[in-house]
Amino acid sequence: MSAPTEQRPARRRPVAEGGRVPWSMLTAYGLLGLPMAAQQLPLYVFLPPFYAQDLGVGLAAVGAALLGARLWDMVTDPLVGWLSDRTGGRFGRRKPWILAGTPLLLVSIWYLFVPPEGAGWLHLMVWTMVAYLGGTLLVLAHQAWGAELSPDYHERSRIAMSRELFAVIGTVATVLLLMATGGDTSAVMLWIAWAFTLSLPLTVGLAVWRVPDTQFAQRRSTFNLRRGLQLLAGNRPFRRLIGAYFLNGVANGVPASLFLLYIGHVLKPEQEAWQAFLLLAYFLSAVVAVPLWLKLSYRFGKDRTWIVSIAWACLVFVWVPFLGEGDVWWFLAITILSGLSLGADQALPSAMQADVIDLDRLKSGRQRAGLYFALWGMANKLSLALAAGITFPLLELFGFDPQAETNTPSALFALAALYALLPVAFKLASIWSVAGYPIGPQTQARIQRLIQKRHFGRIGREP
Q1: What single string gives the DSSP state of each residue in 377-430?
Q2: DSSP state of 8
Q3: pLDDT at 276
Q4: Quick one: which of 144, 156, 204 has its CA closest to 16?
Q5: Comparing C-alpha atoms, which of 316, 313, 341, 350 is closest to residue 426?
Q6: Fewer CB within 10 A of the end CB, N or C, for the chain?
Q7: Are 95 and 208 a contacting pair, CB within 8 Å?
């Protein structure tokens, strides 16, 4: 089958073609992940109880408002991804979306974190929708931009690791702020709003100035939405990867949903500061382990390294149900050891996603990283929603009461088992899903060669 005629090759190439992305450029790209991560912990964890309890909006009203915002978020993800892939021009295809999302996020964070007097459920829903939209514009464009910075299999791991490393550092900064304010939610929200307002424009400006936005030639063929969806559905490596990512996302979402309940009702530390200290230890261990996972991915490949990190987390976390009241130091050891896998868990699947996008580009003649990462984001959000949807009804079924000072031993064991064993089951399922993933360094290099040959019109047939 003859290859359709293509536009003249664009002048700008991926910045790492034939080499490594310079450290200065890599830092400018990854640094944007820091303020984005710093605002996510209060946005998703502190905001609901802040409005429900401190502002007196009520649990039911807050739940309904956030559900409406989340449904809006699910609609905007694929739309933004599809539109960003169609953006062109001298300024780039990803930078305009990052610049468009910045003011939306800055304004909405202030209205959400420092609300005016009398703010209710409608205020929460409207400004959360604006914040979700701004976050979608920024995050999708940032992820797709990273996937397009280099065609090299291993360099993509380095790019994704830089983004996730700064994201973890941003989360650590939020936890430190929580500890410094003594757990005062209002104070944390105010400080995060100020820090976000100062840091986001600076990191966005640095990335826009320092990091090139690669242009891609697109086919002039009659490529329609139906054909695009057929190619997406037929992308077997993508199906396996997003399946594993979804299952692993559920596994990560379950302990995140139950963390405070597990600490407060099972371990019962003498001091409340343990909660923040455990979070800090978890994320710091992730930062320390990032170089190790990067080196392992160079030697064994991204898929195998990711599987090893998942298996390691299972091996460590499976001991949690054997802990009881006062076993805080043992849990600290488990927290540190399981936190080692976080860097690989966040960065390697994203780097693998860039490789399956190459396969789609080879077959479609179009660079659709925005759409692929939009589906990636939807899978992540669905996994978090499913994690909460599974755990809380099961806890209630086993008779656990979060308001009670004491629960029955069976209810507490159910809490510990759901907190630790259910994530292990989902992580093992994710290993099964990604095992035998077909795109390794040699396969990805071959795909890139075929793309380049077609791009410059040197072959006339489909592979």
Answers
A1: HHHHHHHHHHHHHHHHHHHHHTT--TT-S---HHHHHHHHHHHHHHHHHHHHHH
A2: P
A3: 81
A4: 156
A5: 313
A6: N
A7: yes
**What are the chain's domains?**
29-215 (1.20.1250.20), 232-454 (1.20.1250.20)
Amino acid type, 76: T
368, 228 contact by CB (below 8 A): yes
Record the tokens describing residue 235, joined without a space.
Answer: 């992308």
Cα distance between residue 157 and residue 296, in whole Å: 11
Task: Give dist(CA 342, CA 287) in Å, integer.
Answer: 9
User: Model confidence at 9, in pLDDT bands (50, 70, 90)?
Assistant: very low
Phi-psi category of residue 325: left, alpha or beta, with phi > 0 → left and psi -120 to 50 → alpha: beta
Show the tokens assigned to 387.
Answer: 């994690």
CB-based contact 393:414 (threshold 8 Å)? no
Sign for the CA dihedral angle at 347, 308, 267, 384 comes to: positive
Helix (H) or strand (E) holding 127: helix 121-148
Q: Are 278 and 314 in contact (CB under 8 A)?
A: no
Other CB atoms within 10 Å distance of the CB of residue 45: 18
Per 3-state DSSP, the chain is made up of helix, strand and coil in percentages (nearest 5) of: 75, 0, 25
> For residue 141, which amino acid is it?
A
Sequence letter at residue 301: G
Question: pLDDT per residue over 217-260, tens digit each?
Answer: 454 444 455 666 666 777 888 889 999 999 999 898 888 878 87
Residues 33-64 have pLDDT tens digits of 999 888 887 777 777 777 877 788 776 777 78
The encoded tokens of residue 65 equal 């408002």
Locus of tokens 């295809």? 93
| Selection from 153, 145, 151, 149 nearest residue 372 by Cα | 145
Asked whether residue 212 carries a pLDDT value surpassing 80, the answer given is yes
Quick one: which of 130, 116, 9, 4 has its CA closest to 456?
9
Structure-block tokens of residue 111: 């209205």
Render 51-75 in DSSP notation, one character per residue: IIIIS---HHHHHHHHHHHHHHHHH
DSSP result, 203-234: HHHHHHHHS-------B-S---HHHHHHHHHT
Confidence of residue 5 (pLDDT cuts 50, 70, 90): very low
Between CA 142 and CA 28 the distance in angstroms is 12
